[in-house]
């Protein structure tokens, strides 16, 4: 009969268990044909009823049984097992090869008289157990108390670990709260700056809207206007005149030399945007003797005469009429 697997400290591999009794193999033997491992007692009891292997049903008899392989025997000997009197209170843990020697002096083994009484009259023993205190029961109770104490200690350790983790989490939460507060303060500051910037932008946009409304009313968007400049110097060219206008903050579109009635004066047709018209109509822009009129189809505006002297000119812009 094999050993109880629950007595072993660690889980026992299935290869070391007897397929007949399902216990850990005791005195292992195997058949020469199948090499399956059995307890010596279990397989001999089996062969009294059937001369076949319990697993693969190959022919098997006692003469074909051989001792278990050395490696199996070595593995079994090194397994750690509790005393078979563990339930009675023995706490010894040893190798399997030391179990028989331990049982010879184990103080918790059942007395022989108790075994005889239990075999002869089990009913009397059961009745007497109710009257006489059983030391085994007291030992079991003590063991249960010890086990519960160990479980309680484990629970205490777990509670301590959880408490420590909770304190760490609380400290981390406080740090995160502080960081969130700092971010919130910075966010409030950014929001104030954005509100200020928004108010400034709204002022700009409103002023632009007003300007656009004014330009729309006056039709000064991107319309072009033609102007005729009269009585400029005979040395003036369209290129020089456009450069002169650019230096005075305008963006002329084109400039064409027109017919001139006098040999020493030149006339030019200049096209500009309406947004530059105010600058173009400034009398201080043109030299004395020159004149400018706005041409709109067949209609012309009154002449605007120049008031700028030679000393005020950036370029050499002179009229064709002597002052």
UniProtKB/TrEMBL annotation:
Signal peptide: none annotated. GO terms for molecular function: zinc ion binding. It holds the Pfam family zf-C3HC4_2. Residues 18-57 form the RING-type domain. Gene3D superfamilies: Zinc/RING finger domain, C3HC4 (zinc finger). One of its GO terms (biological process) is regulation of canonical NF-kappaB signal transduction. It comes from the Eukaryota. Coiled coil: none annotated. Keywords: Metal-binding, Zinc, Zinc-finger. This is RING-type domain-containing protein.
């Amino acid at each position: 009969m094999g050993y109880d697997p629950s007595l072993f400290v660690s889980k026992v591999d299935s290869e070391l268990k007897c397929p007949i009794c399902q216990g850990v193999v005791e005195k292992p033997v195997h058949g020469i044909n199948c090499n399956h491992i059995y307890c010596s007692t279990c397989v001999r009891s089996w062969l009294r009823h059937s001369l076949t292997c319990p697993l693969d049903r190959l022919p098997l008899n006692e003469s074909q049984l051989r001792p278990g392989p050395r490696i199996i025997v070595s593995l079994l000997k090194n397994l750690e097992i509790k005393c078979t009197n563990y339930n009675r209170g023995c706490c010894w843990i040893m190798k399997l090869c030391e179990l028989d020697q331990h049982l010879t002096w184990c103080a918790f083994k059942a007395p022989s008289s108790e075994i005889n009484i239990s075999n002869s009259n089990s009913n009397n023993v059961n009745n007497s157990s109710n009257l006489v205190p059983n030391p085994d029961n007291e030992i079991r109770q003590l063991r249960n108390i010890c086990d519960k104490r160990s479980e309680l200690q484990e629970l205490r350790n777990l509670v301590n670990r959880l408490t420590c983790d909770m304190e760490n989490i609380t400290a981390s939460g406080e740090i995160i709260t502080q960081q969130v507060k700092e971010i919130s303060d910075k966010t409030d500051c950014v929001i104030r700056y954005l509100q200020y910037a928004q108010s400034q932008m709204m002022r700009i946009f409103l002023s632009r809207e007003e300007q656009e409304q004014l330009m729309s009313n006056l039709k000064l968007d991107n319309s072009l206007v033609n102007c005729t400049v009269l009585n400029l110097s005979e040395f003036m060219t369209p290129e020089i005149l456009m450069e002169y206008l650019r230096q005075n903050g305008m963006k002329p579109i084109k400039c064409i030399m027109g017919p001139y009635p006098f040999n020493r004066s030149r006339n030019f047709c200049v096209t500009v945007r309406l947004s530059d018209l105010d600058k173009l109509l400034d009398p201080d822009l043109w030299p004395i003797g020159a004149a400018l009129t706005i041409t709109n189809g067949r209609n012309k505006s009154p002449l605007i005469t120049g008031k700028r002297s030679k000393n005020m000119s950036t370029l050499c812009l002179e009229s064709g009429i002597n002052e």
